[in-house]
Amino acid sequence: MKKLLERHIEWLRPFFQPGGKLQWLYPLHEANETFLLTPAEVTHGAPHVRDQIDLKRVMIMVVLALIPATLFGIYNAGYQFNLANVVEGADFWDHVIKGLWLCLPIILVSYAVGGFWEVLFALIRKHPVSEGFLVTGLLFPLTLPPTQPLWQVAMGVTFGTVIGKEIFGGTGFNVLNPALTARAFLYFAYPVSISGDVWVPLVKGGPIAEGFSGATPLGIGAAASVGTESFVDTLSNAGYTLKTLFFGLHPGSIGETSMVAILIGLVILMISGIASWRIILSGLLGLTFASTIFQHFAGGPNLKVLAELPFYYQAMIGSFAFGLVFMATDPVSATATNPGKWVYGFLIGALIVAIRVSNPAYPEATMLVILFMNIMAPLIDHIVLQAHIKRRNRHVHA
Predict the structure, then answer these.
(1) Between 100 and 32, where is the model more confident?
(2) How far apart are CA 348 and CA 374, in angstroms?
């Protein structure tokens, strides 16, 4: 089968090379060839590094790491729909089918529109099709509620791809994470569709389950006020126990609710060496540090009840885990130096908690914190490098 595929691609290649009838479509042919087969090109000059991993393989590994969160998100979307709309007798496959009906169009629109812009810019610039849309096209839908209108999905992925990446030169040159840029655009352009109780679709005029609210854990925290009952008890009474939060069967963005699915993806990224363990660990340390500090001052006049939560609750609510694993570790928009990664991750974890507990209007801070740290990443690396140069100079002149 492999030899047959190689012969077929070899036969097609002359049509797309300079002088061929389809040379203007060479970026598409190159993308297809290098996606199916290991590229035959090698480095012409020294130094040489022998490695079977290229950018496409890196992106494919990230997509594989996202599959558990995607599959669970599809199931959970269907489960929440059937639960809220009192669909009697709904079983596992009913949840899956309904989840596919809700989530698959969002994913397909994201890939179709994002892929269109990637191919268009590749043809205009006459360079290979970027592999980045393989990840962005899936990451972006997983940050959205299953109720997101498809035309807004198209608008968001267009903004994230064109403004967030292509105007900087494409994959490898973007300052901001494209998927987060797309979500930030939707959040500010169409806030009604992406905030509030929009996480579970409801059938108009149909029955609604008793006690259904559709609020996420962070939504409950934003609306709650300091009282005699601890916020942990408030969450538990609303059905959000540690077990529920860990497994993820609750309303939220498509791919961000299940810690189990996210941890499986993290293991894949760690084994493959794609994600930085320094950013992951320092992010957890930053969250733990800030949570401990704010817990000490919980109940203050300017702090929300979210300040009462211990670090393990803070890590499992909202999009912290998903953002830290799949977006903060983006090798293009994150810091490049090892010391810088520690600072970068720590500040992400600490700032997320700080905004959650002090800003009553915006408890979910993961998206904007990571984007802010994307902007700060070059400065952090610059400071690290300057400190290293000064240290070396002292040794030279000593």
Answers:
(1) 100
(2) 10
